[in-house]
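Practice problem: predict the structure.
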Amino acid sequence: MDPLDLNAKWNVLKSKLRIQYPDWVLDDIVYKPGNQEDFYKKLAEKTGKTKQEIISLLKELDLDD
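Answer:
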């Protein structure tokens, strides 16, 4: 599986996450470059999904252009 390049695509993915999860606040989806593991963990806790499911979700959102 190809790694997800959050650094290059974060602004677009963040907007799509906010559409999919409108009750989230910006603090729920803060991504800091180099902290992908912490970010995936936070989203997994927020959604009840696994890390792999979060990565799949982000990849799906990335493909929805």
